[in-house]
Specification:
Elements (H helix, E strand, L loop, with lengths): L9 E2 L2 H21 L5 E7 L3 H16 L3 E7 L5 H12 L6 E4 L9 H7 L11 H8 L9 H12 L8 E5 L6 H9 L8 E5 L6 H6 L3 E4 L17 E4 L3 E4 L7 E4 L4 H4 L5 E2 L7 H17 L6
Parallel strand pairs: 1-11, 2-3, 2-4, 5-6, 5-7, 7-8, 8-11
Antiparallel strand pairs: 9-10
Helix pairs in contact: 1-10, 2-10, 6-7, 6-10
The protein binds NADPH dihydro-nicotinamide-adenine-dinucleotide phosphate.
NADPH dihydro-nicotinamide-adenine-dinucleotide phosphate binds next to helix 10.
Length: 302
C-alpha cells in the first residue's frame, strides 16, 4: 500500500468501487444469460512480455468471476501481421465473442494501428478504433470508451465530485488515457462540463497550470512527478500513473508508484486516488462493463 502520511485528503478507494462494479456486471451477466446471451471476451496475447501476460491473466480471471466467457488466444512472438489479422477477422465473425482485445504492446513486425483498424468497432471494448474515438470526440456516447478514462469518470461520479464548471488539468495526451479523458470531461452533463486543459511534455510552465486546477488527472508515466506544492489547496487528484520500480525489500522485488507524490499531495488535496488501489482496478472493471454493453446490444439482433 502507498505510505499515507497524515494528510487532509479523502481517499478514493478504486478497489472498492471496482468490486461494486464487478458485482453489478455479474448480475447483468446473469440477466443476459437468461436471455440466451453469454457475454464473451477474447483477449489476444502476442509474445511473452511478462507484464502483458499478468494483465491478460487478470482480465481472464475477472471475466470468469463475473460469469462471462473468456477466451485467451496466445500467439508466438514471431507471429506475422497477416496471421494476427486473420485471428481478429475470425473473432469479428464469432457470434459468441462480443468483445475483442489485442494486448499491447505488439512485437515490432506488427503495426498496432493496422490491428486496431481491423477490429469490428462493435466489438472494440478497448475503445481504440477510430470510429469509437470519433464518436467520443463528437459527443456520441453510443461507442466504446477506453477503459482507464472511463474508470476515472466513474470514480468521479460515484464520489459525487462536481466537475461542472471545474478547471480540470489532464497531464498526458495519449490516445489511451489523456485525450479520451479530456473528451469525457468536456461532455455536457454530470461527470463533464469541465473547463479542460491538456498538458504534455512540451507544455510550458506545467506547475502554473496545475496550480489553477480544481481537478488534476495525472497520466504521465513518471514516478511522483507531481508534488503537493504544485497543487491548488482542495484539488481533486486522480493518479493514473503506474511506475514499477525495483525494490528488493518487497516480496515481488518491485514497488508500484504513481505519477503523483502521494505524501505531499494528500496533505493539500481534498480527494486523492492511491497507487495501487486507485485507478488501476477500475480499468478491468470497465472492460467487463464494456463487454456487457457489447453483448447486450446483440440481444434480439440475431
Ligand atoms: P504515454 O507514454 O503514452 O503518454 C504519456 C504522456 O505524458 C504523453 O502525452 C507525454 O507527453 C506526457 N509527458 C511525459 N513527460 C512529461 C512531462 N515531463 N511533463 C508533462 N507531460 C509529460 O503513457 P500512457 O498515457 O499510456 O500512460 C500514462 C501512465 O498511466 C503510465 O504510468 C501508465 O503505466 C499508466 N497507465 C495506467 C493504467 C491503469 O490502468 N491505471 C492504464 C494505462 C496507463 P508527449 O505526448 O509530449 O510525449
Amino acid at each position: 500500500m502507498t505510505s499515507a502520511v497524515a494528510g487532509s485528503a479523502r481517499i478514493i478507494d478504486g478497489s472498492a468501487v471496482a468490486k461494486a462494479i464487478r458485482e453489478e456486471v455479474k448480475a447483468e451477466t446473469t440477466a443476459l444469460v437468461a436471455k440466451g446471451v453469454k457475454p464473451g471476451l477474447a483477449v489476444v496475447l502476442v509474445g511473452e512480455d511478462p507484464a502483458s501476460a499478468v494483465y491478460v491473466r487478470s482480465k481472464g480471471k475477472a471475466c470468469e468471476e463475473a460469469g462471462m466467457r473468456s477466451d485467451t488466444i496466445r500467439m508466438s512472438a514471431a507471429t506475422t501481421q497477416a496471421e494476427l489479422l486473420a485471428v481478429v477477422e475470425r473473432l469479428n465473425h464469432d457470434p459468441e465473442i462480443h468483445g475483442i482485445l489485442v494486448q499491447m504492446p505488439l512485437p515490432k513486425q506488427i503495426d498496432p494501428q493496422a490491428v486496431i483498424l481491423a477490429i469490428n468497432p462493435a466489438k472494440d471494448v478497448d475503445g481504440f478504433h477510430p470510429v469509437n474515438a470519433g464518436k467520443l470526440f463528437s459527443g456520441d456516447m453510443s461507442g466504446f470508451i477506453p477503459c482507464t478514462p472511463l474508470g476515472v469518470r466513474e470514480l468521479l461520479l460515484r464520489h459525487d465530485i462536481d466537475t461542472q464548471g471545474a478547471h480540470a488539468v489532464v497531464v498526458g495526451r495519449s490516445t489511451i488515457v489523456g485525450r479520451p479523458m479530456a473528451a469525457l470531461l468536456l461532455l455536457p452533463g454530470k461527470g463533464g462540463d469541465a473547463t479542460v486543459t491538456v498538458c504534455h511534455s512540451r507544455t510550458r510552465e506545467l506547475a502554473s497550470h496545475l496550480k489553477r486546477a480544481n481537478i488534476v488527472i495525472a497520466a504521465i508515466g513518471r514516478k511522483e512527478m507531481i508534488t503537493g506544492d504544485m497543487l491548488k489547496a482542495g484539488a481533486v487528484v486522480i493518479d493514473v500513473g503506474m511506475n514499477r520500480v525495483d525494490d528488493p525489500s518487497t516480496k515481488s522485488g518491485t514497488r508500484l508508484y504513481g505519477d503523483v507524490h502521494y505524501p505531499s499531495a494528500s496533505a493539500v488535496a481534498s480527494w486523492i486516488t492511491p497507487v495501487p488501489g486507485g485507478v488501476g482496478p477500475m480499468t478491468i472493471a470497465m472492460l467487463l462493463k464494456n463487454t456487457i454493453t457489447a453483448a447486450g446490444r446483440t440481444v434480439g439482433a440475431a
